[in-house]
Amino acid sequence: MGIFERYLTLWVALCIVVGVALGHVMPGFFGTVAAAEVAKVNLPVALLIWLMIVPMLLKIDFGSLGRVREHWRGVGVTLFINWAVKPFSMALLGSFFIGHLFAPLLPAGQISSYIAGLILLAAAPCTAMVFVWSNLCEGEPHYTLSQVALNDLIMVFLFAPLVGLLLGVASISVPWGTLLLSVLLYIVVPVIVAQLWRKALLRNGVAGFDRVMRLLRPLSLVALLATLVLLFGFQGEQIVRQPLVIAILAVPILVQVYLNAGLAYWLSRRFGVAWCVAAPAALIGASNFFELAVAAAISLFGLDSRAALATVVGVLVEVPVMLSVVRIVKATRGWYEGGAGRARAALEARQ
Asked: Which of 89, 104, 177, 218 has its CA 20 to 30 A from that of 6?
């Protein structure tokens, strides 16, 4: 885990401070950046989003999908959590915490936008940081790679309909044209570009590919941090006036991460999944593709929207929380393997 990944929470906090300060000192610059739009897509931010996403997608080998069968129980658990539980549980948690419990502490006109940001955060499973979490908990690398590749493939087709459904359920207007454009710009095209680039790099051998990946490694996070500076340059004043907002938004995100990680881990144990698969399954089930969430929130609701802010809080919260999940699954390995062994024996006896 490199210095950028290890101290991501610190870098995000620094970007908040820098963004707020620059927003006060250079309001004209941020106004110019906000005006650089084509079809509601902010061009500087779109470029930064691409710099975030494409290097991450270069790691994905869709050829590894053929190995999904080797760990089908773990894959099934993670798919269930990622696509049938996590987005819907976040919609419920957002509605409960933001729409009801903490609603008196928030301006009424901002509540629906915050909920929309939380839904966008949970609607896509994590792609890049999952490799870090899996490595930290000694996860099975082939399972992790095949699961991420499968999730990326599903995301191309399900992200827009799922977000549209959940935003509709939450009574939030869905700008379908902008949403579909976001999927095209931030999922479909980057996946195609990354796979073509990956094939071109691998023609020169694995060593050359690894060398390029090492050079690109910090690029995604640097682009993410630059995007956050822009976001907080627009929203800084409101955050300074309402510091409680960050803490409020963090509550449903925290509950969602531990809920989904715990459910994935428990289901894996019940189905007798090996611990080296169950540990990354819990982490993949809980983590979010916050780069895509930030991009979609900006496209749908704008740079200075409350939805974009909610996705940024996801970045701030996720890193330390996921590190705690890594510690939990490693500390409970003995408990897990005892129960999983009994479950495997029972399944084999029934067969």
From this structure: 89
